Each structure stands twice: as structure tokens, then as C-alpha cells.
Amino acid sequence: MLDQSHPALDGQSVSIRDLQLDFGSVSVLRDLNLDIHKGEFLVLLGASGCGKSTLLNCIAGLLEPTGGQIFIEGKNVTWAEPSERGIGMVFQSYALYPQMTVEGNLSFGLKNARLPKDEIAKRVARAAEILHLGPLLKRKPAALSGGQRQRVAIGRALVRDVDVFLFDEPLSNLDAKLRAELRVELKRLHNSLDSTMIYVTHDQVEAMTLADRIAIMKGGVIQQLAAPLEIYNRPANLYVADFIGAPPMNLLRGDLRGSEFRGAVTVPMVGYDFAAPPKDGAAVFGIRPEHVLVGEAAATAPVRTEVTVEIVEPMGADTLLWTRIGEDDFRIRIDGQTPIRGGDRITIGLDPARASLFDAATELRL
Amino acid sequence: MSTRRPSSLLRNPMAKLAAVPMVVTATVVFIGCSLWTVVYSFTDSKLLPRANFDGFAQYDRLWSSSRWIASVENLAIYGILTLLLSLTLGFVFAALLDQKIRGENVFRSIILYPYALSFIVTGLVWQWILNPDLGIQGMVRAAGWESFAFDPLHTPGLVMVALLMAGLWQGTGLVTVIMLAGLRGVDEDIWKASRVDGIPAWKTYLLIVVPILRPVFVTSVVLIGAGIVKLYDLVVALTGGGPGNASEVPAKYVYDYMFANQNLGQGFAASTMMLLAVLVIVIPWAVLEFGGKRRG
Amino acid sequence: MADVAFTPDQASGTPARTLAGPVGARPKSRITPRKVMIYGALGLVSLYWLLPLWVMVMTSLKGMPEIRMGNIFAPPVEVTFQPWVKAWAEACTGLNCDGLSRGFWNSVAIVVPSTVLSIAVASVNGYALVNWKFKGSEVFFTILIFGAFIPYQVMIYPIVVILREIGLMGSVWGLVLVHTVFGMPIITLLFRNYFASLPEELFKAARVDGAGFWGIFLRVLVPMSLPIFAVAMILQITGIWNDFLFGVIYTKPDTYPMTVQLNNIVNSTQGVKEYNVNMAATLITGLVPLSIYLISGKLFVRGIAAGAVKG
User: Fold this and answer.
1) Do B11 and C134 touch (CB under 8 A)?
2) Domain boundary residue, one of A171, A205, A238
3) What ipTM describes this predicted complex?
4) Which of C3, C13, C22 sits opposite A6 (nearest CB)?
5) Checking phi first, is residue A174 left (phi over 0); if not, alpha (psi -120 to 50) or beta?
6) Is the CB of residue A237 less than 8 Å away from at least one CB of chain C?
7) pLDDT in tens, C162-179
């Protein structure tokens, strides 16, 4: 473990380089490179088995990589023990020490490190204050609610006085209401502490609301690393496009000819930001249900078509319309108050500037 | 089907019939026989049971018998030491087996196999190993240490050691298996958390895992305890109660007086005392463990 | 080992970015103090645990002169199976000198009916307790379980009286009855817990299909419970085969089970002790449960774990 900081790492809180993790012949993480800025809230998002928890455990030092390096705050920690990496970690099952009081849980690691008593008391008091644990200090985990337990778990990481916090799906064990409450608390915590936070989840709402940047993972490879809105507006490939957004993006298959998409609808891609000069070939056209124009706005849209509404799903704030374009389902989200009924024939407008276009073979954004 | 509901006694007749053995066992054998013995302990029965009531005479005789006192003391010593050593060794072995080692199944099978043997087999093989001339003592002496002395079977002060050696050899496997199952049930994330906190493995075992395993320890204590009171076969095979009374135990006192010495009354009194001892321990434990649940 | 130029954060596919310093998996020596300690400790424990078995086998294959030379741990210089033959066919218990074989067949005659009967009764008991609860069923069950804690000594004499009354005292069937009765608590608990873990819908569906008490048991539950029946069999065969107390009280010399006969042969014989024959006899007695243990492996462990979970 080298102590000198590499100049290449300035400003990077955590730097993962060419990380490889194989279990026998199976590669769980492949050539993974990721740089996380100081004070950033980075979310690792993906379905089960995509490697996000594995990556987090590697950063923590709980799993040993087969290849590559991990740098935390400029130091090469690839071979360091978890407790030497300057990290704190919060687990999905809280993993509080059951027979100790809250105070005991918070101070156990510090006592083990032979910190002076007043330093320990100071740190515990600070954590208790930030997380509102004061009245709970003498209680044991069994006597706490799920939300309280999770706060104690966060407190245990806090008292370590570190710059990097790791969260492994911390809200997954809580019910929906508590999850929403704690999500906000976590964001507040991040704002007040300004520490780097690496957060693993499969829930896209948590990812979108909490992250400065999201890394979407699939099969051990990062699909896209960008800010939430960027991922939402300009998904880098079909997987990302389908993963983010509920209800998911509408996808139409067809061909790209010149700069025109030809499928069940023809869409001249005017105003669309191509990554490279467009080449002819099979393509997939995507547009989100909420970006489809209806009513007056549709009249002035660059591309218009007519669809028959098959099913109307009123959800209060919005209404979801299920229609068909060609062979595919086409979902449209409109304001909840608009009076549309099943069987109605409506004109919709598509704005290519808000759409996404993907190469049918490589699935990458064009 | 009749329109009138049959009396609850006649409902589910098959189930009740099937449960007759359980009912009979519970009442006639467990309660009935025990009560019978207790009642007859107040008689002066000798070769055959006689309803000649004698007050507490049998108990007077019992507690003035040096052999009985020795039996009780021996059992207490054996019990406490077995408990402590089984639990400690069982936990340590389980912790060792838990370390993700190769051959875990083989090691576990080796520690557990004596549990499959009869106490008689155990007692006899250890009797042979501890043979003063041809067993361990003899071997060490022949190797050069002439003054080496280890003859527990003929040394009153050491004979309990022999019993313990044999008993632990046979019984530790059970505790190990139970502890191992308990260890495997500990949340993996707790281990991760303690690694992040920098707690060394031995401290984690001692201060975090052991408290989590409290219910497993309690179960083990109950199991081991139940076995201790019944200690009989091992003594018969290994030491025969000797030398003198040095390894006598209550269960043997009961058998010897009941069937060999033609003194049923003493046998009844002794077994009643054994029952009392068990009740004194089991009833408070049961109330603690289950009383709350029934009320709640 | 020079620094590679820093490339902007993108997904994989860019040139290698590793810098100086530790890379990849930490170099591990195959021999660490920790491994030495663990394997060493377990090795020593295994040695100690296997020693008695080793001694039993070795002694049983030696001739008496060799045994008298001492060195109990050494393998036989001259292997002989005489002790085995003698133990099986010629050893004396009291007036009978036809060896352990008598005790072996007695034990078989005791264990087989006891196992069958106790499992038949207890499995039906457990079934009735779970699916056909009636008033007082739980009370009787609690008494049954508490009864498992009562020291046998306080019940053995009245049972002698009962067996005498029904004429089974001293016979194999008397002992079978005793084993059935005393096997009930644990085996009933085993089956009760298992049946309670099955989904209730199974039972309800069978009832809707019109099956009755025995129909559901025999045609639905038993086929699903074969592992538990195996576990119960292992528990009972091992426990009853190894029993001594009931054997020594409720039988006569010609119906002695193997354990009782073994103890007589070794501890009560007058005259010269034939240690090799004794060890052969001991080994033969232990062979049956030991074989079951080795063959059943995981099931055996499951059995004792089940016995350990009370209430």
C-alpha cells in the first residue's frame, strides 16, 4: 500500500482501474474503470446479478479482485484490509451488533482501535446529533424500529470519521413510506457532510433522486455513467433506455435511411443530436410516454400520426393510454384530467429532439 | 349425515383412537408410574413392593448412606465439568470448522462418530485404553518414564477424569454440530460490519457471536443436562462405580438397590430424589421459556 | 511501471489505466500462521478422536502374547482373526458359550419391531396432533414432552410390575413395548414439527377430495415424508441398539440384547482376561450403529438436530 498520491488522482475520491473479478471461469466484473469525484453521491444501479454489490464489496475490501487496482483518497488500497481503507459501510440488513446498546454499537469499533475515551464520546455525540439518535442511545437494536436501526447503522459508519461511505441497498428492507422518508434524510445527510457516498440499489427512483451521477451496470460492465437527467434524456443504449423510466420508453423497430427513421411511422430526425454522422441500417426509435404530444401541442409537432386508444389507465395525477403503432404497444402519458375514452382516435405528435435512436445490432445510441 | 352435531367427544373418532397410545403413555406411564414410585418410597418394601407405610424412613437411610452422598457429589462434579467442557470444546470445534476449510465434512464426521456408539462400547474401549499395565500408563513407562503414573481407574481421586475423558469423547460431537448450525445462522453482514470496523476475528467470536448464540447455548445446556442425570451405562462399563464409591452415581444406586440388593424402598427413595432434582431444574426453566409465550 | 495518462471516465474498452503499486489479488502464501493453527488444531483433535477406534481394531487383530507385550497403539505384527471368531461364536455369558451372536440376533429381534412400532405410533400421533386437534390433545402432548425429561429410574419398577401382569416380563416383546413407549416423545415431536411445516392447503385439498383420517395419512402425507421417516428410523435404530438400561432390566439371559451381553463378557468373566476378544466383541457391537452413521451422513446430523429442537 503506497502512501504517495498519484497526480493522476487529484480530485478523485475513489478511482477504480481495470478491475477484474473472476469466480472460477465466470467473470463477474470485467475491465471496470470508474472515477468518483470528491463529495460526489454516486449510485450503482442495476438488476440482481449485475455486479453492483460485488463492485461495492471490492471497494470495501470485503472481496478480493482478480486484477486491477482500487484507489481511495489517492492511496492504493488494493491490498488493504477494509478497516484500513478509510471507509464506512451500511448494510441492507443493518448488521447491528444485537447484544450491544446503540451507544455500544457506535463505540465498539473505536474502542477496539484504542481511541481515547473523550474522542470516542465526542464522535458518538456528533453522530447521535446528526442522526437524531440521542434518546435511543441506551436501547438495544431489538427495541428499535427499522428506520431507527438503519440510522444507527449509518451512525456506526459516521463515527469512523472517514471520507467515503458505502451503502449496500440500505433501504430495501423498509416499507415504502419509510423508504421515502429515509431517502430524504440521506440526501440531507449528504448535503451537510459533503462526503463521497457510493450507493448500491436496484430501485431507479432512489437512484434518480439521490445521485449526482448514476452508473448503470449489467453483466459486470458499466452501461452508462452520467447525471440522472442525462441518463433519462439521452440513454446510451437500449438496456439503459428500457431500465430507466416507468412506464418504460416506447420502442419502434425500423430502418434509418439518410436521416429519416422508417418504421410503422416515418420520422425525419430533425433536431436530433446524432453522436456520429448517421449511416443507413436497422434502427430502433424510442420515445418516452411522457414526451408524446397530445391535443393542441400535437397539432404543431414536426411529426404527426393517428392512433386508436385501446385501454385507458387513470392514475389520478396522470392517465396512461395504451395504443398500438404497427405491431408494438405504444404508451402515452397525459394529464389526469383530460377526457379521453377507450376507442377514441387521437392525433399524437412526436418530437425527434426528445427521442432516442439506437442501432438495432449494437443497441448503442446513434 | 345426521343433522344434529355429534357431541364433541365423538367427533374425529379416528384421531382420538390414533392418539390413544400417546394418551396412555403420558398418563399411565409418565405420570402414573412416577407417582406410584414416589408413593411407594414411603414404604418399607424389600424384595417385593409392600404397602407398609414407613414415613420418611427410607429417606433417612438414604441421606445417611455414604454411598448415596458420594453418588450425588460425583454426579454434581461430573455434571458441572461436563457442561463447562462440552460447551467450551463444542464451541471451539464449531468455530474451527466454520473457517471455510477443506475437509470440513471429514473433520465433523470424525468428531461426531462416537455419538453413534453405545455408552457400553465407549466405556469398554476407554477401560482398555486406561489399563494400567497395557494401556497408556504401561506404554509411557515402557518408553522410559518409569515414574509416570496415570491410572485413573484405580485412583479414587482421578477416576472422575476417566469418566470425563470417555463422556466428552462421546458427547462433544453433538454439541459441536449444534453450535455449528447456530454459527451458520449468524447473519453474514455482521461479519462484514465487524471487518469494516476493524475488529479481529477472535474478538468478533467472543463478544459478538457468542451473545448472538445464547439460545443455542441454552439448548445445549438442556440437552447435556438431560443426559447427565441419566448417567449409568458409562459408569457400569468403565468403572463399575469404583474404586470404592469414587465413581458411584445415583442411577447406579437405584439399580443396585432395586434389583440386586433386594431393597426396593431404597431404590424408590433414590429415584424419587432424582426426579425431584430434575423437576427443580426443568420447571423454572420451562416457566421462563414458555410461560411468557402462553400468556402472550 | 510509469504512470499511464489519465483517461476520462467512460465505460470499459479504453487502454489500461493501472498505476504503480499493488495490483489485483493480494499475494498469499499457501502456508499462513492461521492455516497452520486451524489445520493443526483440527488434526490433533481428529487424532485423539480416532485413537480409540484405532486401538479397538488393532487390539482385536492381535494374539494375546503380542498384547501382553504392551504398546497398545502399535499395529499387529501378526494379524489374526481368531478374536473375532471367538467373540462371535464362543464367548461365554454365564452358562451360555455361544458367543455374541446370540446377543446380536436378540438385538435385531428387539430393534426391528421396536422401530417399526414406535415410528408407526408416533407418526400417526404427530399427524393427529397437527391436523386433527381435539380438546386436550395439546395437554397430553405437553405431558409427553415433559415425560422425556423424567429420569427413567423413577418409572422402571412399576413397569416391571405391569409387564409381569401381562406376562411379557423377560420376553423380547416386553422390551419392544418399553422402547415404543419411551421413544414416543422425541419421535412424535419430530413428526409433529414436520407435519406442522407442511402447507395446510395440502390437507384441506385432500379433505375436499373426500379423503378421511387414514386416507390422507397413508396416501398424501407418508409419501411426502420419506426423509423424515428415514431420520426417525436412524434415531430409533441407533438409540435402541445402543440401549443398556432397559435391556438389562426387562430381559432374561437368553434374551439379552448385544450391549448387555457385551458388558457381561468383558466385565464379568472370571479368569484370564482376553483383551483381544473383548475388543473384537466391543467392535462388533459398535459396528451396526457406526455403519448406519457412516452411510446416512447428513440424515444422521439432521436427526440429532431435530432431537435438539424442543418446543
Assistant:
1) yes
2) A238
3) 0.84
4) C3
5) beta
6) no
7) 999 998 888 899 999 999
